[in-house]
Specification:
about 30% helix, Histidine_triad_HIT, alpha+beta, HIT family, subunit A, five-stranded antiparallel β-sheet
């Protein structure tokens, strides 16, 4: 069921009402670590303004942030590749109805598209904190 701004978790994160492990912010976008990552460093890039999905616009305004964060993830985490995707609509698997682009760093131990969704999903708080510190330069992971 699509959300509006009043109950949108990503709007609340952008507004600072909910905590996140933010790795980038600019005038149009905010990027933060996914709490249930597919792989180490899985990050979401969202527009500051509420946009339901990529069909409703918003992708051009966050494109510079997507490119910046993609480079950040590969350079600082030593990823050998990266998947970028966005789901539009419930039937496509969209769960939060605020445009978001998933940036998933990829490593040699789990290559290919099938490897994107295989294996362990999720991370504990300490692991997320270590990745956040590595990405923001606040310490080593």
């Amino acid at each position: 069921m699509p959300q509006d701004q009043t109950d949108c978790i990503f709007c609340r994160i952008v507004a600072g009402e909910l905590p996140s492990r933010q790795v980038h912010a600019d005038e149009h976008a905010v990027a933060f670590l996914d709490l249930a990552p597919f792989h180490r460093g899985h990050t979401l890039v969202v527009p500051r303004r509420h946009v339901a999905d990529l069909r409703a616009g918003g992708l051009p305004e966050i494109a510079p942030a997507v490119e910046h964060v993609a480079r950040l993830l590969t350079e600082r985490l030593g990823a050998e590749g990266l998947n970028a995707f966005s789901s539009a609509g419930a039937v496509a698997g969209q769960e939060v109805f605020h445009l978001h682009v998933h940036l998933v760093p990829r490593y040699a131990d789990s290559p290919g598209l099938r490897g994107l969704f295989s294996g362990k999903h999720g991370a504990d708080a300490a692991e997320l904190d270590a990745v956040h510190a590595q990405l923001t330069g606040q310490g080593a992971a």
